[in-house]
Design brief:
Blueprint (H helix, E strand, L loop, with lengths): L1 H6 L3 H5 L4 E2 L6 E2 L13 E6 L3 H4 L2 E8 L5 H5 L3 H5 L3 H8 L4 E8 L4 E6 L8 E6 L8 E4 L4 E6 L4 E5 L5
Amino acid sequence: MLCSFLQGCSPMMGLGVLPFVGQSNERFILGHLGSKTKVKIKTVTFSASNQANQNYPTEIHLVLLYDPHLISEFLKMSADDYFSDKNYEQLQKDHTSTIKIYKYQVTPGSRIEARKVEYADSPVAGFLFASYRTPGDHRIRIGEQRNIMVMLDEDDWRVVPYESQT
């Protein structure tokens, strides 16, 4: 249903609200809605400014989904919803074989070199959630990019493609 809705929209209307990453003038979507894109993530690198998350440590979770029926639930979920009362723990208990969560703690001013992401099967979707102190969804959907860098700033964060040195 969502696919048919997006097909009826102008290209920019449907894409304007999705997380973008890119370098220079290049822009593309990481795991856009309605795609058959498989998650291919291999490494995650983190870079935090000295004032990242208003100078507080940031908990970041990479969530890989193996059940396509869960995607819509995660698309509606903000990071506040996800982290609230450790909701992610219940999600993992309820879906033990269809959700895999990788947890990272990033402090302001730090850089964490490429962390390998290992999994056996092919995830159907991937999301990053960041425990930011500022308003916003703080959720980004990932797609076919194999190596990404999570860049944390004072009030927000972003994900960019990254050529790992490992």
